[in-house]
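To whoever is covering the structure queue this week,

Two jobs came back overnight. Logging them here so there's a record in the thread.

Job A:
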Amino acid sequence: MTLIVRDVRPEVPADTEGFARVRRLALPYILSTPESVRHSALHTHPDARYRPLVAEEGGEIVGAAQVLLAHDSGEPGQGLLNIHVRPDRAGRGAGTLLLRTAEEHLASLGATKVFSWVLDEPADRAFAERHGYRASRSAYFLRLDLAGGGLPPLTPAPPGVELRSAAEFADDPRPLFELDAETLQDEPGDVGFEAPDYDDWLTSTWHDPLLNRELTMAACVDGRPVAFTAACTDGGGRYSTSMTGTARAHRGRGLAKLAKLHSLHRARAAGVTDAFTGNDAGNDPMIAVNKWLGYEICAAEVRHVRELG
């Protein structure tokens, strides 16, 4: 069958559904829906030059790629690339063709270095190494079986702390933005980035169709959020936290753990059965929090990097 790579057409449901399905099958630990695929295609910051690609074999979508520039990094020329192929179609050339198309696109935009997350599996790592990528930092995916119990009981907020959902900030989400922007600066990673712009945050994060504002919880002091966990859901019983953090002046009090605990209890009451999260392998404090909550490591991935040219 003929194998081709082409751009995603965000207005075509078959494209967004096919892209999301590939992601779910290849990387079930990350939420992906047709709506989120369409939103990313249309609303990723223009400076990122985001280009979602699909690989088609015999008219069927069998692979997908996210290709963009790290536009918010202080260092120019850094490209980001993630490739996924349906497990039942692996080894038939879709990944190689997606990779070649993506690298050519990034090179045309002036990228000199490409970063890519690769599952920590022998076949995935061998593919990356064959194409000139070298391993960098590692990260874990963790899963919590909410349907099976095991979640610690709710604990009350300490004196002077109030727990509020993001939905309660609907009229003015800027305080959540400011907290998110501060905590993102301390996220471990090999690609540095600058604080986001508020309008871009509203578009990319606040209006992300995966964000569940009722389950996103913030610990507040004097009405201002100082710790939070951002919760995403896919409408199919799956939940994921995309970010959990605490303002520097309030760390060491267990407030992020408290916010996440309350979010998970709300999620279970709402019918969520599977909760996922991710941690940099070197982020010991957050790994400890997630293990206390009952999460278990279910997979790992390794960031790979390649110099273009």
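Job B:
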Amino acid sequence: MNDRTSGGASGGTTRPRILPPLRGWTGGGATTLIAGHSVFVRQDGPAHGAPVTLVHGFPTSSHDWAGVVPALAAAGLRVTTLDLLGFGESDKPRRHRYSVLDQASLVEEVWRRHGIGATALVAHDYGVSVGQELLARDPARITRMAWLNGGLYPDLHRPVPVQRLLHGPLGPLLAPLTTERRFAATLRAVLGRPVHDEDVRDLWAAASRAGGHRLAPRLLRYIDERRRHAARWTSALEGFPGPALFVWGPADPISGAHVLARIRVRVPQARIVELDGPPAVGHYPQLEDLEAVAAALTGFLTP
């Protein structure tokens, strides 16, 4: 099932901000100690609403979802967001061996702490690997699954040049040299539509807090994990028995139209919302076309 959503282009910083200020977002959540590390968690919407968990991508944080969450909460959903370890307001231990498997266990512990059993799951970018691991562990727990641009198929993943450098042997030397300006340039290179400068500034603030940008070489080991667990994670994706939705930006050079083409073949029962504009959306659908993403998720997740 396929929907095509168009939206008008806007340029420069004249486009309104999509995200509420980072400080207000973090002020609405709290940190909790999990396995010796402080983890930021936020709960929105009615306590007895149908649960949905949103998992963010690399290198940003749960703040990516801040524009979408109000619509989901207003629809009566109980929305859980968190910053994975090494991201946003959560702890960023320098010598930690970051693992997608451990991040999935962290999500499960958040669910346990908050009394969340069965839940819908929405994942983007790095978060799709966490989502695939959670599906592989216990598909019956996931009531429905929504995916935004991410490396669901490792052989189709096309990291940008900066990511390849940071993932390589020079990564530990290069990561400390990352600046807000370089971050912004890399981000804009994977977008199909402009994002307000203040939104980009807040994305950088979350990524760089407590020296988080220095962790990129360690966090990027997820590229290797995707290859190592490819068969298991692909099977979990394609074999998921519940409702599935893909909200996709085809202009994404990392995981765009070339990934969507395989999804159509391998997951034919899923609903696909292709944000093809004009202009077409890129790697961050929830920032580039907030209205379309919020509408697609609300319609899909509302019982």
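Note for Job B: The longest helix spans residues 100-113.

Please reply-all if you pick these up so we don't duplicate work.
Q.
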